[in-house]
Amino acid sequence: MNIQQRELYYIVVQLRPGSGLELTISGSNATGKNLCRRPTTVLTQSSTYPKQGVSFANDGNKRSKARCCSRTADKLPKAWLQVDLGQQFSIKNVKLYFPTDDYWSGVHIRQFYLDVSDVPAKQSTTYQRTRCYTDTTTDTVGPRSIKKIRDIQCYYTARYVIVESHYISPENDPSEGAVLEICEIEVFGCEVGRFGANCTLCRGCQSCDIVSGECVLTGLTKQQDSKDENMLILYAISAVLSMSLIINGFLLVWILRHRTSRRRDVNQEKKPCGTQEIHNTLYQELGQVIGPSQYDQLHSSSLGFTVQ
To answer: What is the C-alpha to C-alpha distance for residues 88 and 242, in angstroms, rounded to an integer?
Structure first.
């Protein structure tokens, strides 16, 4: 039987002062929540163009008007925007909204890349990041033909999400440097150990696939497993040492008792012999004392008989 699957969509209508009505359409297959809207999430950018601060990239306004977007300053070799989630999260996808009403805005979104890392953008190197996406738009593609909304899959566990560009457009003055314009950035995911649209707890493991919930090993769980393994080894070594100390203690007590017992046996064997010698000596001395005196011997000899 063939079952036709249909995707449900939710339409959210929001009234923003000065912006009018805003419609947001979300599919039921969306995973996680927009982590950028958490109160602990902090956005920063490498530099700021006048009146286009980084807060524009996280204000919920997706109308893609250049004046309502964040923008880095000119004349710099590198431009980046960073989302600090405050801690590690399981990330599913990152959605970027770029300006659509300005020619040069289209130029500025060529050849950017999207990284995740546990080290901030100012300190991290290429080896400390994981690349989720690299834009390969060439200079021959007109700015107005470039896609202005990018939904980028990024199945990683990390704290920082970094959009960066070193691209300098040949259509512009090279001294302008690399420029990055972003109207809105959304990072969808869950806390580590949760999955799915409602961020349900993983079943039977500390970390699981953000979509299916299947248990997987990530850098965090590998680190935890390694820590647990080290603790088990430590416990095993402690147990072996404790048993060794106990056994050695029993052996030492047994040896001491055995030696003490042998000494007692030797002393008991030597004691009768020593007593007999003492008795013999006493008997000899007593015999000398009670035997005939010299006077008796002389007197007896004069009388002609011997005194015994």
So the answer is: 39
